[in-house]
Amino acid sequence: MFGEFKGTPIGNYLESANYADVQFGMFIDELKKAGLYDNTVLFIFGDHYGMRKEEESLYTFLEKENNIYLNDTQKTLNFTNVLAGIHIPGMKKGVIDKPVSKLDIKPTILSIAGIESENDICLGRSIFSTKDYASTNEYTIITKDMYYDSRKWVYIDTNEDVNMDSLDEETKKKLEEMISNLDIELGISNAYPILYKIDSNSSLSSGNSVNSENVVLEQSN
Asked: The pTM is what?
């Protein structure tokens, strides 16, 4: 089914993704049979780090399928990037083609449901807001064209360092504000102790683990 990738880590990963896709399709069919599909908001997103970053078959597959060569920055972003989709009853199909984060899921769902709370704390923003970049808990920032690797800004397409002196004042100010906001967000999240809970198998698990990536979300009928 997967040709040269069958039996490789990426081939096995694609087989598991195909299985999950079929099962999700069955779930959608049951929602429609029960008359719930047209009155239900569905938000599905992938997990990250399903494969090792060093797995060459991953990049061979990505480069072959897209007929492109990935530089080091693009490899880093593709490794952490996940797809996500939203089904919102009454909304026409479309694509939000900007970096957003898993931190944006909660505020997005609250926005769709029309829920507002002055006492609620959200580190993210609704994906329907004007925010056009995503930040992560690894002290990195992703815009449509640039990537901040916690030390410097890099152009995503060329993998070249951004010469800050060559940027206009407005752009430099915007990038500085992104880093400042990241400091504030991480300061808030790191100020609270991680809560733990014991599951039925008595294994220790984090109760507030949130990860974020650069994702593209699609709304559909």
From this structure: 0.69
The owner of tokens 């780090």 is 49
Q: Is pLDDT of 210 > 90?
A: no
What is d(CA 176, CA 198) in angstroms, rounded to the nearest whole number? 41
Find, among 126, 121, 96, the residue nearest to 111 by Cα: 126
Cα 77 from Cα 167, distance rounded (Å): 23
**Closest-CA residue to 145 (of 129, 132, 136):** 132
The H or E element containing residue 36 is: none
Secondary structure class of 186 (helix, strand, coil): helix
CA 119 to chain centroid, in Å, comes to 26
Alpha-carbon span 164 to 172, nearest angstrom: 7
Separation CA 215–CA 95 (nearest Å): 11
Give tens-digit pLDDT for 61-90. Answer: 877 777 778 788 888 887 777 778 899 998
Distance CA 1, CA 11 (A): 9
Which pairing describes strands 146-148 and 153-155: parallel, antiparallel, or unpaired?
antiparallel
* Separation of alpha carbons 192 and 174, rounded Å: 28
